[in-house]
Amino acid sequence: MHSLLEAIRTIPDFPEPGIQFKDITPILSDPKLLRRTLDLLAEPYREARIDKVIGIESRGFIFGAMLAEVLDAGFIPIRKKGKLPAKTVSISYDLEYGSDTIEMHADAILSGDRVLIHDDVIATGGTAAAAAGLVSLGHGDVVGYSFLAELEALNGRGRLPEGIPVESILKF
Ligand code: AMP
User: Fold this and answer.
1) Which of 47, 57, 69, 96 is the catalytic position?
2) pTM, two decimal places
3) 105 lines ligand 1 (CB under 6 A)
């Protein structure tokens, strides 16, 4: 666990002054850390009968797709506005730096699908809360949240619905 924590690189003032950016790329480039991270992310949800894993653009795609494979689930990308080619549902929200709109293909979730939402970092929780809103629009059930890193001072998990597990491997 120590080496994972040390592998995350904090880049000050990126992409804007005042942001302490958590860079996960040193974990991705190390095969042992990559495997360990995937195991830790998957562990809490192995018996959760997940139908779909959602990965949030763009760093959420990396472990999101791997998680889907190991949990025997499908993968759904949530993307920034205008990137998905077919009919979409969309939600606008505030984030740590600026505001944004995210979209998901309207037919990606089947009614009653058990959905796990994954991203690399939870900061204010706005993005994950918006992703949960998209799942609701698609009539799926969010059964868990999965993050590699959590910025605890921002209390992002406080913005997520109560009673649904929120797992993060590394707390900052
Ligand atoms: P939030 O909606 O505030 O929870 O922000 C989460 C989204 O912004 C995720 O997609 C993160 O990848 C990105 N993000 C926010 N703050 C940081 C940070 N300090 N380091 C890396 N990524 C961040």
Assistant:
1) 96
2) 0.96
3) no
